[in-house]
Amino acid sequence: MKSTAYGSIKNLYLYIMRIVIMMLFLLVSFSSSAEEAGFFLPDSLDTKAEQAINSALAGEYSKSEKLAQGLKVRAPGASCVLLNIIRLSKFDDVGDTLVLHKAKESLAACKAVGVWDNLREFESGYAESVLGNSVKGALRTRSAAKKLEDSDDKDAQAFYAIYAYYIDDGLSFLPFASDNRNSYLSLLEERTSHSKLFWALFATPLTWMYYDKKEYAKGLAVVERSLKKAPGNPVFLQMKADMLYRMGKNVEAADIYEKSAKEYISRTGKSIRYWCAIGNLARIYMASGDSMNAEKNKVLLQSPEFKKIERWMPESLMKDLRKKDLY
Q1: Please, what are the domains in the chain?
Q2: What single DSSP character describes residue 266?
Q3: Taking the mean position of all CA atoms in its chain, how far away is CA 305?
Q4: Phi, psi (rounded to 5 degrees) for 153
Q5: Element spanning 284, H or E
Q6: Model confidence, pTM
Q7: What's the pLDDT tens digit per position in 250-297?
């Protein structure tokens, strides 16, 4: 009797273990297949990923990183890629170069599949380029873009469009070169409006594409839509000021940059974006005929503190400051 009972318990135990193993196998398989099927994430993971991105855009980086890490069990590749997109966003905002290095190293070690792995490589190329490894970054970005080109996922196509736009733009002087820039702009416009996870990653290059085309009103429209989705985002606010400056709306542009400089010195000290505000104020005030305030900001750019951070400044801004004898 005792032996029969023991045997029944043993069989039940083995049966339960088989079910558990099968469920674990299905969970891993589903997680892998989900990552392979475009940027789709199963069940509530999609909502959590969106919350992570929204938290980053609100400057809540600790919360954002925890949310991204919470995806790790069921979608480890997506979790790692999103976590490092958040880190790169944090660098872009607060100028923490240690975070940039951490993102670069983590992206190199990430294990992802499908378009998530392509995006990992794409973002890794960006990190390398920012760190000054331009050739390595360009090759990595090119490799990732070529893989994203044939995807059926619209967000994947939009990441390819960023790369392809600049390739076509660089070859536009050739009479027989193909030019699909308008179609790439249209796709980025659409994904900026409808992508849940990556709209901000599309809005930023789209704005600068319009800026380079001197279509500042279109760039401003992209930024205004972005600020409705991420109210008060300090990076988009600086971009808004850039568009206004080029449109000749110097008073509005200066007002945004004055507030931005105060906010950044309060949040981050004299970080990269603080100095971007100072540099832009110098040229905005010069364009306004306000020589006193132009000189005031020019003097700030001569400080030893700025010299230490100069290498991280946007090349186009520094070139314009030198041209205007503001640096």
Answers
A1: 1-148 (1.25.40)
A2: H
A3: 27
A4: -75, 130
A5: helix 272-288
A6: 0.87
A7: 999 999 999 999 999 999 999 999 999 999 999 999 999 999 999 999
